[in-house]
Every structure is written in structure tokens, then in C-alpha cells.
């Protein structure tokens, strides 16, 4: 099994360039399915396992997809869609595969996708996606592990209120509604920057979407969308992870490409912890010369504190001065990293949806596992400051979302390598 081997105790210093956002590029790749004429060329596409998986999903549908790892571009030609079925082997690997349902329904009037199932961080139902499709006039059937949706006479615009501002449901419904007849009004949608990025790409393709990033999105259906070139926004979670790495190692790191507007709650909490943050138009400089102070964090939909930064902040709190509370409100089971952090000598108690983290002077390196993507990031962060060697296993989770992690961390002075054992 491949592992990451980290020797802790090195201060991080220098510059690191942030790649395109995983959570923007995945729905945007799904949206390329709407392009009937002309290919799309996506730029700033990160070299991630998830990008590879969704590319395989599209290939399975008969679409031409080509990733250029030198240029970080992805070419997608969806002029022909030969199949509307996504198999279990691919959907199981990555839940975001389900994002092809909206575009397939809009473009082909049908879609058959394997039920995604649960995952380490929660059960993650898709009821809000399905309610949205039904409101647009689709018929949904569930059986034999698949969800089949059909709208043989096309979709019709509707007023849809989301009970919770789900990121995936907002994206899936927005993509389906682009080609529905008439207007769709989506109330209480997710407001994440990745929603805005998807809407911008769809609008470049010819869609008529207004209000993405606010609490009401209006979509006027059009009859045709065409493939276009588009550049993906930087990954705010990757940026946030390097910011925490800089803080924990008492380093001095310039995070190139980071958009501070997207990182407000992360920046606010780091400042509260005593970290110095300097923002400019090209990135963010993070410096820290003393032990961080404990802070409380509570995850919320955007613009609240992101759940995808919760595990990394918990890693920081394990070595901060004092006691911090970490409350997870978005996912019901996103504390899998707690037991792993405890193996490294941290002092954490879970009380329902809150973890009480009492800072310790030192973590000790040992064998741990990445139980999910951000839990894996938390283990790497802990390993960077632990005494001795930390071995992180199950790193396929980390490969889903961190582009060239080892190269980037080594470039900042960390002692980390990848091995096969
Ligand atoms: C590829 C991608 O962009 N992934 C992100 C996306 O995931 P994803 O789109 O899956 O997250 P959602 O916003 O949909 O989920 C948030 C909460 O809503 C619940 N829910 C969601 C849909 C639904 O139909 N019913 C329902 O109950 C989920 O179980 C979860 O508890 O947003 C999450 C929340 O910011 C992030 O952690 C993920 O990194
Ligand atoms: C939970 C995450 O991603 P996904 O929704 O793709 O599982 C994440 O990026 O932390």
C-alpha cells in the first residue's frame, strides 16, 4: 500500500501555487455535456484522481476527453453522447459523478445513474437533487441500485425551494434548468464560489443564469448550449490547507493564486489564532512565529466556515495553546480523523456534533490513515509538526483532492515522500 512518510519539525517557507478548484472543475466537467456544438477547453484543471474519474465517466458516455498534464488543460468534445448510463464502479469511486444527471436529463431527456451510496463522512442522500428534477417535470424511478430519470417531452421551468442549500443539488438543478422551457427560480440555493464558477461557465456556453452566489438563482431556459473555453477558479480549500500548514509550522508562506474573498472565515479564524495574514491581489502571505491560540469553529454552508477545512483546523488545534471547540453542522459523521489524531498524542473528546480539543505541547509521529480526503490532509498537517516519523496510509483519499501535494510541500521545505509498501 502506498504511504506518505513525513519527518516532522520543518518550518515551511517560500511560495506555493494553488491549483484549480476540485469542487469547481467537477461540476464544470459535468456541464460540458450540455455543449452540443464545438468542444470545451478547460484551463487550470488540477491533476486529481477525481478529475480522472469524472473523465472516465464521460468517456463511458461516448464523449471525447483528453487531459494535458503539461498545460493543465482538459479538452472535452460532447457533440455526440452515445450512452446515458453511469455505472456503479465509477459512481462508487466519486459521488460527484452524480452531477451528470442534470446535464444528461436536459440534453438527452434521460439518465440512468448508479445510486451513489453512503460515504465515510455521512449518508449523503440525494433527495434534494431528485425533488428538483421532479419539480422540473422529470419522472424518477429507483430500482436495482440505479436511479433512472426521464423527461421525454423536455423539462419545464419551475419555482424550487431547497430545504437545505446543498451544493450538489444547486449545481445539478441549475444545469438541468438551463435547457428547460421557461424560467426556473431556485430559492435557498448554495452560495459557494464554485456555484458562481459553474454559472459563469454555463453563461459563456449560452445559458441565462442570474443571481448565482446569492440566495435566489433565476434561470431562463435556452434551446441550445455550445462548448466553450473556460478557466477554473483556484481551490480555496487547497489554499486554506497550506495556510494552516504555514501557521502550524510557524512558517512564512506566500499562497499564490489564493482569493482572499473566498477564504474570509478561514482568514478570520487564523487571525484569531494569532497568525499574521497579508492579502493582496495575487495571493495571501501567512506568517506565524509563535504557538497558535485555540479558537472555536463551527462549520456552516458558505459564507460560513467550510466543512472541508474542519479537519485541518482540528489538526492545528491539537497543538494550539488552550482548548477549542469544533462543531460540525454540515455532515453528520465528519470526525473520523479524531481517532487518528489521538494516536499521535492529541487530546480530543467528542460530544455529539462537537469535538473538544485541548492543545498539547507535542504530537508524536506514528502510523495513521487517511479516512477521507480532508482527514488525510489533517494527518499530513499533524505529521509536519510531530516528533519523528509519521506514516499516512490510504492516501488514495488524499489523491482525490490535492494536486502534487508532495512536490508542493517539499518545495516549502517539508520532509515528505511517497512510498510503496
Ligand atoms: C464535489 C463537491 O463540490 N463536494 C462538496 C459539496 O458536496 P455535496 O454537494 O455532496 O454537499 P451538499 O452541500 O449537497 O451536502 C451538505 C449536506 O446536505 C445533505 N444533503 C445533500 C443533498 C441532498 O439531496 N440531501 C441532503 O440531505 C448532505 O447529506 C450533507 O449533510 O459540498 C460539501 C459541503 O460544502 C463539501 O463538503 C464537498 O466538498
Ligand atoms: C467532501 C469532499 O468532497 P466530495 O464531495 O467530492 O466527497 C471534500 O472535498 O472535502
From TrEMBL:
A Gene Ontology term for the protein's cellular component: cytoplasm
Catalytic activities: phosphoenolpyruvate + UDP-N-acetyl-alpha-D-glucosamine = UDP-N-acetyl-3-O-(1-carboxyvinyl)-alpha-D-glucosamine + phosphate
Keywords assigned by UniProt, alphabetized: Cell cycle, Cell division, Cell shape, Cell wall biogenesis/degradation, Cytoplasm, Peptidoglycan synthesis, Pyruvate, Transferase
Name recorded for this polypeptide: UDP-N-acetylglucosamine 1-carboxyvinyltransferase
Family (UniProt): Belongs to the EPSP synthase family. MurA subfamily.
Catalytic site: 119 (proton donor)
Binding site for phosphoenolpyruvate: 22-23
Keyword Zinc: no
Binding site for UDP-N-acetyl-alpha-D-glucosamine: 95, 124-128, 308, 330
Role, per record: Cell wall formation. Adds enolpyruvyl to UDP-N-acetylglucosamine.
Recorded metabolic or biological pathway in which this protein acts: Cell wall biogenesis; peptidoglycan biosynthesis
UniProt subcellular location: Cytoplasm
Top-level division of the source organism's lineage: Bacteria
Any Pfam family: EPSP_synthase
Primary location class: cytoplasm
GO terms for MF: UDP-N-acetylglucosamine 1-carboxyvinyltransferase activity
EC number: 2.5.1.7
Residues bearing PTM 2-(S-cysteinyl)pyruvic acid O-phosphothioketal: 119
Annotated Enolpyruvate transferase domain residues: 7-409
A biological process term (GO) from this entry: cell wall organization
NCBIfam families reported in the protein's UniProt record: murA (TIGR01072), PRK09369.1 (NF006873), PRK12830.1 (NF009470)
Amino acid at each position: 500500500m502506498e504511504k506518505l512518510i513525513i519527518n516532522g519539525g520543518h518550518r515551511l517557507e517560500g511560495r506555493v501555487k494553488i491549483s484549480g478548484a476540485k469542487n469547481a472543475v467537477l461540476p464544470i466537467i459535468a456541464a460540458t455535456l450540455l455543449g452540443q456544438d464545438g468542444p470545451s477547453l478547460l484551463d487550470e484543471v488540477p491533476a486529481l484522481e477525481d478529475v480522472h474519474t469524472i473523465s472516465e465517466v464521460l468517456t463511458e458516455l461516448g464523449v471525447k476527453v483528453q487531459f494535458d498534464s503539461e498545460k493543465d488543460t482538459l479538452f472535452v468534445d460532447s457533440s455526440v453522447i452515445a450512452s446515458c448510463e453511469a455505472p456503479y464502479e465509477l459512481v462508487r469511486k466519486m459521488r460527484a459523478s452524480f452531477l451528470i444527471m442534470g446535464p444528461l436529463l436536459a440534453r438527452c431527456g434521460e439518465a440512468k445513474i448508479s445510486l451513489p451510496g453512503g460515504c465515510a463522512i455521512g449518508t449523503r442522500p440525494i433527495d434534494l437533487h431528485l425533488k428538483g428534477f421532479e419539480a422540473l417535470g422529470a419522472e424518477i424511478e429507483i430500482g436495482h441500485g440505479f436511479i433512472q430519470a426521464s423527461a421525454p417531452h423536455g423539462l419545464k421551468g419551475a419555482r424550487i425551494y431547497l430545504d437545505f442549500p446543498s451544493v450538489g443539488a444547486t449545481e445539478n438543478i441549475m444545469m438541468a434548468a438551463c435547457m428547460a422551457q421557461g424560467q426556473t427560480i431556485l430559492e435557498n440555493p448554495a452560495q459557494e464560489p464554485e456555484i458562481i464558477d459553474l454559472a459563469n461557465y454555463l453563461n459563456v456556453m449560452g445559458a441565462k443564469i442570474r443571481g448565482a452566489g446569492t440566495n435566489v438563482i433565476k434561470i431562463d431556459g435556452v434551446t441550445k448550449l455550445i462548448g466553450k473555453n473556460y478557466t477554473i477558479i483556484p481551490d480555496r480549500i487547497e489554499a486554506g490547507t497550506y495556510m494552516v500548514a504555514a501557521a502550524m509550522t510557524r512558517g512564512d508562506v506566500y499562497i499564490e493564486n489564493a482569493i482572499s474573498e473566498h477564504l474570509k472565515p478561514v482568514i478570520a479564524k487564523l487571525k484569531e489564532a494569532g497568525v499574521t495574514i497579508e492579502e493582496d491581489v495575487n495571493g495571501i502571505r501567512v506568517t506565524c512565529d509563535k504557538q497558535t491560540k485555540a479558537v472555536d469553529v463551527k462549520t456552516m454552508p458558505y459564507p460560513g466556515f467550510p466543512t472541508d477545512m474542519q479537519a485541518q483546523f482540528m489538526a492545528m488545534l491539537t497543538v494550539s495553546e488552550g482548548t477549542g471547540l469544533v462543531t460540525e453542522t454540515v455532515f453528520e459523521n465528519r470526525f473520523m480523523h479524531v481517532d487518528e489524531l489521538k494516536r499521535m498524542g492529541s487530546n480530543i473528546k467528542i460530544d455529539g456534533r462537537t469535538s473538544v480539543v485541548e492543545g498539547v505541547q507535542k504530537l508524536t509521529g506514528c502510523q495513521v490513515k487517511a479516512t477521507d480526503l480532508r482527514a488525510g490532509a489533517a494527518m499530513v498537517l499533524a505529521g509536519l509538526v510531530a516528533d519523528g516519523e509519521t506514516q499516512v496510509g490510504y492516501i488514495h483519499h488524499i489523491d482525490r483532492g490535492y494536486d502534487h501535494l508532495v512536490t508542493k510541500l517539499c518545495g516549502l521545505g517539508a520532509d515528505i515522500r511517497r512510498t510503496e509498501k
